[in-house]
Amino acid sequence: DTAVSQTPKYLVTQMGNDKSIKCEQNLGHDTMYWYKQDSKKFLKIMFSYNNKELIINETVPNRFSPKSPDKAHLNLHINSLELGDSAVYFCASSQVLAGGLEQYFGPGTRLTVT
Amino acid sequence: ELKVEQNPLFLSMQEGKNYTIYCNYSTTSDRLYWYRQDPGKSLESLFVLLSNGAVKQEGRLMASLDTKARLSTLHITAAVHDLSATYFCAGFINTGTASKLTFGTGTRLQVTL
Known about the structure:
The structure holds two protein chains of two kinds.
Chain A: E1 4-7, E2 10-13, E3 19-25, E4 31-37, E5 43-50, E6 53-57, E7 64-70, E8 73-78, E9 87-94, E10 103-105, E11 109-113
Parallel strand pairs in A: 2-11
Antiparallel strand pairs in A: 1-3, 3-8, 4-5, 4-9, 5-6, 7-8, 9-10, 9-11
Chain B: E1 4-7, E2 10-14, E3 19-25, E4 31-37, E5 43-49, E6 55-58, E7 61-66, E8 71-76, E9 85-94, E10 99-103, E11 107-112
Parallel strand pairs in B: 2-11
Antiparallel strand pairs in B: 1-3, 3-8, 4-5, 4-9, 6-7, 7-8, 9-10, 9-11
């Protein structure tokens, strides 16, 4: 069974469009994250949710809106896509409150904005 | 704010040789992680280092942590082609309600025959 899954794996779209990426974890973790990996492979956290509550918002443009319908899901909606949004987006999860050590990453969604 | 720097950014080494990747971080970090990423793939956790002097080994890779120097190293022994990948270190801060990883720039390792 896949621990952290994301859909879609690839997303190609035009500037100005709105798109969503979905993430699900079946590990029973309390915290989920979105990371962005740019073309130079630099990885940076965007958001963190703990039990459906937004905990970290790393000065991401408000065109990016995460939504957590329940503990197992964290979706990322992006409005008015720009060329600079092209990147690989990784979802991750961890069990923070019980002191879990590992952060498990999903397979990534490669977003290309043309 | 925690900042994490790795060097080198790119490393080309021959099979059978040894080398070390360095990871410096700017402020106290609760833990230090090492990840591996193959091209087009996700991140695979290699090591979690929790305390000063921690050393962990898996196969040809050995990671260590010196919290006083704010330095972690990933040592590669007798490199083989299969180790070619990008390696990231990441510092971790947990404030109780919020926790996050701050990644280094990554080191792209290429092992040649």
